[in-house]
Amino acid sequence: MTASRVESNWGASFRLVAAEKWKAKSAAMGQHVTQALVNYAQPQTGMRVLDLASGTGEPAITIASRIGPHGHITASDLSSELLEITAGRARQRGLTNLAVERVDAHHLPFADESFDLITSRFGVMFFEDGIKALEEARRVLKPGARACFLAWGPFEQPYWESTIGVVVKYVAGPALAPGDPDPFKFSQSGSLSSVLKRAGFSEVDERTVQVPWVWPGSTEEVWEYIRTVSMPFRRLLDSVPAQNWAEINRDVHEQVNRYREGDSIKFGAVIVLASGRKS
User: Fold this and answer.
1) Which band of pLDDT confidence, cut at 50, 70 and 90, is reported for residue 88?
2) Domains, the chain, ordered by start
3) DSSP assignment, residue 257?
4) What are the helix (H) ranges across 148-244?
């Protein structure tokens, strides 16, 4: 998939509307995932940081608060529209140490040895050429610095099985077609570590952990959110015959409500954390 096609898909107007509409609840749902990556990456005061595939701003915004006014973070993404949301969120928080830049992770426009830390939350799975992108990440890191990534664990977990998994039952074929972006590309233990090592990183670490993944609202809201922002499943969702949607919606609501506790839906999330150091 070309960079222009990726930008077009991830910056699609309906997705941008949804990202803006649900940004507060989406951020609340992802806060534990963001915190897991930030704690893993351990950004320090004064660091110069690059966040890849920042989307609407995390973990860049959280890291900006950690590194202080003498540090600096560049939030990068292929979608300039999503970066506008990031920039707006940073302004609302009074963060002056965060800049946004439209960047292709495979061709980073930065000098060698520019950064003390690189992070990416739910981005590494979508790099078309993972080794090339990670080689670029390694190039722009200072010697001894780390690159830290967070990816989805397996599809077989409540958030996905109770929503997209239901749709699959009504549509002939897999959830993802061959060649489509795969959120679960690195769900198999050791797969992301292998790519980091092939890209030249040392002291490679990988761990699979479970964290809270809580939607602070209704079943209808979270299902609307998933349908509009989950770009890897766009082909699947668009293939559903119109007459099937009523039954699918009832089935999804039933499955999602199994995880409801009070005013929230507590799915939980299985994620993969991996890092490597530039020797």
Assistant:
1) very high
2) 3-277 (3.40.50.150)
3) G
4) 158-161, 164-170, 191-198, 219-229, 234-238
